[in-house]
Task: inverse folding
């Protein structure tokens, strides 16, 4: 739900417009803008989060083996990503490597998470912004064009015109909307097979899994995966058709949500043949992950080394409700390779909440801090974004050119994805090519391609897991002892982007623990150097294509920009005017009929 | 019907700010806290439902050492709270809530509101009785191993997990019976220890999760004494039952006990 309020003309023609809350970002997201309606441009944008729970505070002193159970509860959508990332960090701290089958099972669970979560977000939430009902209301002339434009991939998905595709995405009634709901349900069943439960797994442990690994487990997973693949093949073609139509029909639409190419990906799917969880080997095994970690700046791949990525992380304040920790303890002065670790690094962070009034003009306005990445080439603290997760993953993987499996291959400029023949559809090879821009449309397009990527990788993981089981190597868990003193870090990709967990153990207890999920990166406020967060600078300066005037303004272009980052699950948008007069319910898939 | 998800922070100890807000006050532009909304919505609702362990009892964010002083809905509104429809708060705990448990309870309440169902039966912790009346262990397909004193020593084993952290024997929850969704997944039934996530004492009273519950030692030691004998006897019977009856053969006689009259 988002609420538009306080429309009051300021000096000149600037109008304050706010959407708060846009659910649901770690609970609560608000976007505050100033819009110049005469020039049809957003002049300023602030992103706020209004929720604090204090994981880093209350985890101190707890048993480190509880960390994945606890941190899973950070998120009600991607809790399993947290549990897995926490186990990665714990495995480094305990010096334990899970048996290969345990690792393949985790990869299968996480692949299903990407499939489920990206599908429900893309087709049941993002596409509501691109469906017939929405486009008719915000851009009537675009809608008439869509109805008369042939869909280039009609032979794959069966919809004759772009308008037909958009109609199939209408909430509750559209064919694709309904099918996507079913697919996301099947995806969750696949997670439950591997990880016991969605969203807080029961069978994931440091050292491996407790999942009962039999051929039945893999058969039950595979039969569901094949059903999803039928849908995915059609969905990619439909997405391409709609997004390409927007570029053609609305010249300049590439500017919506566009920002400098500053992408971070922390890598996903460890390869048990290489991954030993030793920090000192992290560069090596990080480069063997089935999604390559990397930082991409202005189209250039700066690094794929997880050690570099780790050491570059900086947590800034500037607009957040916390006291600084400069005078607090430095837990990790150097990493296990002897490199100095910055005071602003999560290992050395102490979270000191200081609840205070919200000051949008020149003060603090968010519970989210400002994670940045220090580029040692230039000395800049970069406000990396994740491109909603998928864009950064595909971009880094494509440029690195390292992933090479029978189902997915990175070429240096693109990623090739081979999808096998499935019950209702023929074999298909997709190619995701590095786009020209980091903008709303490309974030959205990458998402559906990454669903295909995950499904294809899952085919590979099923093969690998079957090989282990058929060879009699059915061990899934390796026992360990908790050391008195240790440090660990885990790098993973939550569905919507980079995820890291940093752990310090002293006297066998947690002395410090700092998880950094994607949303603090994407939704961060302006930092102490004055650098705005990614939502903020993506919206700032963007043109407005919506045809409605100021009084009927829906903010669809702004919503498309913000949603392209996948701010968790924006369940819907509800807008009303300042005097409490309900303007219109725009869409809320959670609450019955669409208005 | 008011459905609340998430724990309720203590906004009496928030300094100058707020822990959790939702929208703004139109007059002042200041954030409106979750508690502000609750104070206005709860008294008007026909029924008030807390979904998930955070909302029911405080859950993870209410663990020892937390800075926000957060709590469950009944701690905030009062355990004797009655809604406009005359109902106590209805708690559906679980971290997260088992989705079918949630929808089923909500459906009961809607039938009740329409006058088509009697008052929903709740236990002392305000949970629906038919869902939370049995323990995890009572519904767990690994309980047979317990009876035979046959315990998993680590997470590789498909046997009973009480020695490696499972709290199932003393936790009220139906998940091993029902599965996690559409009968798939679950907790100890599929290799995930029960950490007591439906319980008011969660999480602190169950931590550290991966150690054997301290109170379970005596009962599992007792089973450990007679269980192996039961297992041995059952092993003998099982072996017998795995053999076919002896009259199934391809010899030129009928030995089933039937006396044929066709002159064999």
Result:
């Amino acid at each position: 739900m988002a609420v538009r309020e306080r429309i009051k003309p300021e000096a000149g023609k600037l109008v304050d417009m706010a959407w708060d809350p846009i659910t649901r970002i770690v609970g609560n997201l608000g976007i505050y803008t100033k819009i110049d309606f005469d020039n049809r441009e957003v002049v300023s944008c602030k992103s706020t989060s209004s929720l604090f729970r204090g994981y880093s505070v209350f985890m101190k002193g707890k048993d480190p083996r509880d960390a994945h159970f606890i941190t899973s509860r950070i998120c009600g959508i991607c809790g399993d990503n947290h549990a897995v990332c926490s186990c990665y960090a714990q495995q480094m701290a305990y010096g334990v490597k899970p048996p290969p089958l345990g690792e393949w099972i985790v990869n299968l669970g996480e692949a299903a998470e990407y499939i489920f979560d990206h599908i429900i977000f893309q087709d049941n939430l993002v596409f509501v912004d691109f469906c017939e009902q929405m486009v008719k209301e915000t851009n009537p002339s675009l809608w008439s064009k869509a109805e008369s434009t042939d869909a280039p991939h009609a032979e794959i998905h069966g919809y004759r015109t772009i308008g037909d595709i958009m109609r199939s995405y209408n909430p509750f009634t559209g064919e694709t909307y309904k099918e996507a709901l079913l697919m996301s349900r099947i995806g969750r069943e696949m997670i439950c097979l591997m990880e016991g439960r969605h969203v807080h797994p029961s069978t994931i442990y440091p050292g491996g899994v407790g999942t009962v690994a039999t051929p039945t487990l893999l058969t039950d997973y595979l039969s569901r995966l094949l059903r999803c693949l039928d849908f995915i093949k059609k969905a990619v073609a439909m997405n391409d058709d709609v997004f390409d139509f927007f570029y053609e029909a609305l010249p300049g639409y590439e500017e919506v949500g566009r920002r400098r190419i500053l992408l971070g990906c922390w890598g996903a799917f460890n390869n048990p043949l290489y991954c030993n969880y030793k920090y000192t080997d992290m560069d090596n095994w990080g480069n063997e992950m089935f999604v390559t970690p990397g930082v991409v700046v202005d189209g250039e791949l700066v690094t794929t080394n997880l050690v570099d990525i780790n050491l570059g992380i900086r947590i800034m304040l500037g607009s957040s409700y916390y006291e600084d920790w400069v005078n607090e303890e430095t837990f990790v002065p150097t990493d296990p390779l002897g490199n100095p670790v910055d005071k602003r690094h999560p290992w050395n962070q102490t979270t000191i909440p200081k609840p205070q009034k919200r000051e949008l003009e020149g003060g603090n306005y968010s519970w989210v801090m400002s994670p940045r990445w220090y580029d040692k080439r230039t000395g800049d603290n970069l406000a990396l974004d994740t491109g909603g997760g998928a864009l950064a993953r595909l971009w880094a993987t494509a440029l690195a050119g390292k992933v090479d499996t029978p189902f997915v291959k990175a070429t240096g400029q693109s990623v090739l994805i081979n999808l096998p023949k499935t019950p209702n559809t023929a074999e298909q090879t997709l190619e995701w090519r590095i786009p020209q821009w980091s903008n709303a449309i490309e974030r959205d397009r990458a998402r559906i391609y990454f669903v295909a990527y995950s499904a294809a990788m899952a085919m590979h993981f099923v093969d690998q897991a079957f090989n282990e089981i058929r060879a009699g190597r059915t061990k899934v868990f390796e026992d360990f002892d908790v050391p008195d003193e240790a440090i660990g870090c885990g790098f993973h990709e939550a569905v919507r982007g980079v995820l890291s967990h940093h752990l310090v153990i002293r006297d066998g207890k947690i002395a410090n623990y700092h998880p950094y999920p994607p949303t603090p990166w994407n939704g961060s406020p302006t930092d102490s150097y004055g650098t705005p967060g990614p939502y903020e600078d993506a919206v700032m300066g963007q043109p407005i294509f919506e045809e409605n005037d100021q009084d009927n303004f829906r903010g669809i272009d702004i919503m498309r920009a913000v949603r392209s980052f996948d701010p968790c699950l924006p369940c819907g948008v509800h807008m009303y005017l300042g005097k409490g007069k309900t303007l219109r319910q725009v869409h809320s898939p959670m609450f019955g009929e669409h208005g | 019907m008011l459905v609340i998800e998430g724990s309720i922070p203590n906004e009496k100890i928030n300094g100058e700010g707020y822990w959790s807000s939702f929208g703004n006050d139109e007059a002042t532009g200041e954030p409106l806290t979750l508690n502000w909304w609750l104070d206005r919505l709860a008294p008007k609702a026909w029924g008030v439902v807390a979904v998930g362990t955070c909302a029911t009892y405080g859950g993870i964010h209410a663990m020892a050492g937390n800075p926000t002083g957060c709590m469950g809905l009944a701690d905030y509104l009062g355990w004797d709270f009655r809604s406009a429809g005359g109902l106590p708060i209805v708690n559906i705990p679980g971290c997260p809530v088992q989705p079918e448990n949630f929808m089923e309870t909500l459906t009961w309440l809607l039938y009740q509101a329409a006058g088509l169902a009697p008052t929903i039966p709740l236990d002392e912790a305000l949970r629906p009785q038919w869902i939370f009346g049995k323990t995890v262990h009572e519904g767990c397909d690994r309980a047979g191993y317990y009876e035979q004193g046959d315990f998993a020593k680590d997470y590789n084993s498909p046997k009973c997990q009480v020695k490696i952290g499972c709290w199932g024997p003393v936790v009220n929850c139906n998940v091993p019976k029902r599965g996690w969704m559409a009968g798939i997944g679950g907790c100890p039934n599929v290799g995930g220890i029960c950490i007591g996530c439906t319980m008011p004492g969660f999480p602190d009273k169950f931590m550290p999760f991966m150690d054997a519950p301290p109170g379970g030692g005596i009962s599992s030691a007792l089973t450990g004494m007679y269980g192996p004998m039961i297992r041995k006897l059952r092993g003998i019977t099982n072996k017998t039952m795995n053999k076919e009856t002896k009259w199934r053969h391809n010899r030129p006689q009928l030995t089933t006990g039937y006396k044929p009259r066709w002159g064999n």
In short: The radius of gyration of chain B is 26 Å. Chain B touches chain A through 53 residues (CB under 8 Å). The beta strands of chain B are 2-5, 21-24, 31-33, 48-51, 90-92.
